[in-house]
Amino acid sequence: MTHTIPIVFTQVSDPLGSGFVAALARPGGNTTGFHSFEPAMGGKWLQLLKEIAPGLRRVAVVYDPNIIANVGFLRAAETSAVSLGMLLTAAGAHDGADIERALTGFATEPDGGLVVAPAPATFDGRQLLIGLAKTLRLPAIYPYRFFIDSGGLASYGFERVEQFQQAATYVDRILRGANPAELPVQLPTKYQLILNLAAARAIGLTVPEAVLARADEVIE
């Protein structure tokens, strides 16, 4: 749209791979901002899910195959699945119908769980996702707190509101003369693990005490 008007973004998972910036340290153009999840987070979500539900042998990654960052999460989860001895299924989804079809098919075999990537389809379909996870008794980990507020089991992510506040400081600096090409893309510095014990009880899951002790927040 423009190569001159400064742009400050938030919650972009792969600004480099998406071509928004030339480098994280020195964006080089008129665009800079705040990174959300690095691709390696796909492996971290899977590792945490395995710790929350040690009996899992299978996992489906619900992701949007058209989003570069989501593909990166899937690749990282595939690598982690090998080291954890788990079988991974790629559950590509563009809408609620895709989500329902993928989860229903996946749940025909036991000992499965879900890693849910951040994407418009999973945001818009979060009530469907959470409802299916409960009905099909699938432990699931989500990227943001609002999934837990809607009844999800676990989330591991950063504080989104804080990113918008930080973005406002970049806008202020640019309006005062700073060059966006020289303002580094910032990554989150703090992540939170949030657990919902009511959701765990609903699917017959007992979360290990060691995981509960590490959680930043436990909702009863």
Note the main attributes of this structure.
single chain, 220 residues, alpha/beta, Rossmann fold, 2 domains, 7-stranded mixed sheet, two-stranded parallel ribbon
Going across the biggest sheet, name each strand in turn.
Answer: 4-3-5-6-7-8-9
User: Which percent range describes the beta-strand content?
Assistant: 15-25%
Report the average pLDDT across residues. 95
The assigned CATH architecture of the largest domain is 3-Layer(aba) Sandwich
CATH superfamily label of the largest domain:
Response regulator
What is the number of E strands? 9
Number of continuous helical runs = 9
Could you state the order of secondary-structure elements as H and E?
EEHEHEHEHHEHEHEHHE
The low-confidence parts are: none
The helix content is: 40-55%
Kindly report the CATH topology of the largest domain: Rossmann fold
Note down, in words, how this protein is organized:
The chain has 220 residues and is α/β, with parallel strands linked by helices. It has two domains: 7-36 and 158-182, 3-Layer(aba) Sandwich (Rossmann fold), CATH 3.40.50; 41-157 and 192-219, Rossmann fold (3-Layer(aba) Sandwich). The chain is built from nine helices and nine strands. The protein has helices at 41-52, 68-84, 96-106, 120-124, 126-135, 145-149, 160-175, 197-202, 209-214, and strands at residues 7-12, 31-35, 58-63, 87-92, 112-116, 140-142, 154-157, 192-196, 217-219. The strands form two sheets. A seven-stranded mixed β-sheet has the order 4-3-5-6-7-8-9, with helices on both faces. α1 (41-52) packs across α2. The chain is elongated. The mean pLDDT is 95.
